[in-house]
């Protein structure tokens, strides 16, 4: 069976919320505080290129749609160029 690979923060969040009091026991304000504290931790993000486009709809107006893709490392770039 294949092993699932999660980003490092996922098991930490699962462990932090797996012990009582559970989020549903804290009520809306308490649960929001716990989740806000978890989200306040800085996260390393890979570099990416990004373009923002507007999608125009007939009735609703327009909506912004970001397009993001990772910037390849130098070794990945070399592999793609010569294969």
List the helices and strands and how they pair.
Elements: H1 9-16, H2 23-39, E1 48-57, E2 61-70, H3 74-82
Antiparallel strand pairs: 1-2
In percent terms, what proportion of residues is strand?
15-25%
Low-confidence residue ranges: none
Distance between the termini: 31 Å
Order the strands across the largest sheet as they lie in space.
1-2
Helical amount: 40-55%
The count of β-strands is: 2
Output the number of helix runs: 3
Shape: flat
Give a short summary of the structure.
By secondary structure, this protein is an alpha+beta fold. The chain has helices at residues 9-16, 23-39, 74-82; strands at 48-57, 61-70.
Describe the structure.
This protein is of the alpha+beta class. It has two domains: 9-39, no CATH class; 48-82, no CATH class. It contains three helices and two strands; from the N terminus they run ααββα. The protein has helices spanning 9-16, 23-39, 74-82, and strands at residues 48-57, 61-70. Strands 1-2 form a two-stranded antiparallel sheet. The longest helix has 17 residues, at 23-39. The two termini are 31 Å apart.
């Amino acid at each position: 069976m294949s092993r699932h690979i999660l980003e490092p923060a996922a098991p930490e969040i699962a462990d932090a919320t797996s012990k009582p009091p559970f989020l549903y026991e804290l009520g809306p304000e308490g649960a929001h505080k716990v989740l806000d504290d978890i989200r306040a931790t800085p996260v390393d993000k890979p570099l990416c290129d990004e373009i923002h486009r507007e999608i125009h709809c007939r009735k609703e107006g327009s909506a912004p749609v970001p397009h993001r893709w990772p910037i390849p490392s130098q070794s990945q770039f070399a592999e793609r160029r010569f294969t």
